[in-house]
Amino acid sequence: MTEKTYKCLNPVGIHTPVDLHPLAPRLDKLDGKTIFVSIGAGGEQDITIPLPKMLQERYPQVNWMIQGAGPHLTKAGSISLTDEQVESGKIDALIRGVIW
Q: Which of 26, 73, 72, 14 is nearest to 45 (CA)?
């Protein structure tokens, strides 16, 4: 009887290098800050419907910017802030929600 030989493949694939960036430091306070809320691809479902309203009610001293992203499988659906918004320094924090 002949022995069977099995070939195992690595499912990980090829890792391409990416640029790493550290997390932003925590805000020292919320008063007067501008926080961007991005409801990502998938649209408003589940918690993303009441969350922005609740945040605005509980933290009225914050300047909230709320935006829905574009549809699935589009660049707009996967981007929360534009490069211009990031570089402007006018946005202090980002809350990103993605529903699948």
A: 72
Residue 67's pLDDT band (cuts 50, 70, 90): confident
Alpha carbon distance 47, 25 (integer Å): 26
Say if CB 26 and CB 92 are below 8 A apart. Answer: no
72 vs 45: CA distance, rounded Å: 14
How many Cβ atoms are within 10 Å of 69's Cβ, its own excluded? 21
Number of H helices, E strands in the chain: 3, 3
Check if the beta carbon of residue 91 is closer than 8 Å to that of residue 65.
Answer: yes
pTM over 0.85: no
The pair of structure tokens assigned to 95 is 């809350």
| Whole-number Å distance between alpha carbons of 86 and 32 | 18
